[in-house]
Amino acid sequence: MKSLKAQQHILSDVHRQLEILEKGNNDKGAYLLVPFQQKLEESGLFPLTPLGTEILQVNVGKMCNQVCRHCHVDAGPDRKEIMTRQTMQECLDVIDKDSSIRTVDLTGGAPELNPDFRWFVEEIRKRGRHIIVRCNLTIILSNKRFYDLPDFFKANQIEVVSSLPFYTRDRTDRQRGDGVFEDSIKALQMLNAVGYGLEGSELKLNLVYNPAGAFLPPSQAALEKEFKLALKKDFGISFHALFAITNLPISRFLDYLLESGNYEKYMEKLLAAYNPNAAANVMCRNTISVSWDGYIYDCDFNQMLDMKVDCMSKHISSYDPHVLSKRSIVVNQHCFGCTAGAGSSCGGTVV
Amino acid sequence: MENHYYNAKDLGKFGSIADFQKPMAGKFFAWYGEVFGEGSLSAREKSLIALAVAHAVQCPYCIDAYSSDAFEKGWSEAQMMEAVHVSAAIKGGAALVHGVQMMNKVKEVAM
What we know:
The structure holds two protein chains of two kinds. Chain A is of the alpha/beta class. Chain A is built from 14 helices and eight strands.
């Protein structure tokens, strides 16, 4: 499977995505969803403002060994956008000057595919910040040079956050590709073997669930219990927490929604589940997202829609904590994905 | 008025039964919510039971609601279809076991 970009798919144009989100997929404009801004206004949250940057989320590149059907990044082996060491250095300079940043969250693509990934991790580590790596698990088994990743993660006290859409093969492979479940299980066992995910262990291993279809995640707590029971019983695997994440109508998931005729119903479902408490706790209020080429966004989703921050600090080279703290967060219809039900963030539910 | 008995959109209007009788609707929905929450049985297990019962009572609204709900709660297509077979088997068995009553009656009246 190729990325939408490699297919020259119409949705690889973010303007088309935004047009669908704002005006619907009907050329006659018959479908209009309540604007997200209006819901924020009703909740007394518009304009949405930051509460202080605690997390710097860095997308080090769109290259990935997997091509997941729901991927909002449109990542895959054919994506060549990779963060350079120079841009990484600019991120390190920001970490040096902004002490409010406590956590650096590395994502992609598969972040490990960036040739400077290990150097970057070690440099962040020297600066005493907590590091999260969003590891897709299968990367560990994809090539001999990645077999030692569990040890590398351990040596740098990295928190590993990994997608495992479900504890059964069928549902996982349907979303992430044939054979992904089996390799993910092996990788989890390798992580457990070095101490990750074990009860009482400081080596945090958290899993991410996201729905394999046009529906919202069920209760995170109930799901975590089921995942723990099933993975332990069937494969002897332990992990710490499960984050239930809602799929946002962006890129390949948007493509799936449109192709399957679920787009409007899904958006209505997100709207009906709008929760003002979740809206007050959205992750963009304490996170800054940096793209492979150094631009700054309110979140990874805005990044994929090329909606840069609404202030002068648009690039990591001109990062100014004061300027960023005064900005209004840029919102659009996809934001309904983070405010539905118990809310959704890179750390799971928010209420 | 729509010229048929069932309308898929009516499921979304279930709550409006309170318009004609609020206190009873209030009690029903509170009880319903409690029934389907986590208990000695998990919400996930209850969802599959509801799916089977939905087929037994042949309620299209319930079938729509619990097909989605059971899938969302992680039951596979095969598991859901087996639940429907359980429902059908009980319904089929319920009809057939009356065959014994038929036999009894026939034996009673036949020479």
